[in-house]
Amino acid sequence: MENFDPNKESEGLGDTIAKVTNFLGIDKAADTIAKLAGKADCGCNRRREFLNQLFPYHSAVKQFKVLKEFHHGGKFYAKGETIHITKESGIAMKMKDLITEEFLVEV
Q1: What are phi and psi of 75, to 5 degrees?
Q2: Distance between CA 60 and CA 29 in Å, rounded?
Q3: 3-state DSSP: the chain helix, strand, coil percent, rounded to 5?
Q4: Is 45 helix (H, G, I), strand (E, B) or coil?
Q5: Given a cut of 60, is residue 100 above it in pLDDT?
Q6: 79-93: per-residue pLDDT in tens?
Q7: Residue 63 pLDDT > 80, yes or no?
Q8: Torsion of CA 34, 39, 44, 46, to 10 degrees
Q9: Which of 30, 47, 59, 89 is 20 to 30 Å from the Cα of 53, by its Cα?
Q10: Are 89 and 46 in contact (CB under 8 A)?
Q11: Is the pLDDT higher at 91 or at 69?
Q12: What is the distance in angstroms between the CA of the first residue and the CA of the last residue of the chain?
C-alpha cells in the first residue's frame, strides 16, 4: 500500500482498516495478487481514502443525498432526501451500499 504509514495517527476508518490489514499482511498479499493479474495496484489506497472521507475521526456529522430509496434499521430513506450520518450511525449502516455509492452521495 503506497503512501501509508501505519505508525501515523488514523484520520478515519480507512486508516484503521489499513493498519489491521498491514499488521496481518493482507495488504502485501493483495498487492502481489493485483500485480500478478496485471493491475497497477490492488485499489486499497482508493478504498482507504474513500472510507476516511466517509467516516473521519475528526468530524462528527456528514450530509448525504439519498440516490435510491431504501430501508435500514426500520427507517425508510426516500430518494432526494438529505440525511446526516454521524461516525457511529454511519458504521451501523450497510457498508456495501455506502462503499459502492449506489444509495448515498456526499453533499
Answers
A1: -115, 145
A2: 34
A3: 45, 20, 35
A4: helix
A5: no
A6: 888 877 765 555 445
A7: no
A8: -170
A9: 30
A10: no
A11: 69
A12: 29
Cβ burial, residue 5 (10 Å; 0-12/13-18/19+): exposed
pLDDT for 68 equals 83
- pLDDT of 52 over the 80 cut: yes
Q: For 2-51, what is each residue's pLDDT tens digit?
A: 778 889 888 889 999 999 999 999 989 999 999 999 998 899 999 999 99
For the beta carbon of residue 18, count every other beta carbon within 10 angstroms: 24
**What's the full length of the chain, in residues?**
107
Q: Which residues contact 22 (CB under 8 A, 6 or more apart)?
A: 1, 4, 6
Distance CA 99, CA 96 (A): 5
The grid coordinates of residue 27 equal 495488504
Return d(Cα 26, Cα 77) in angstroms, integer.
35
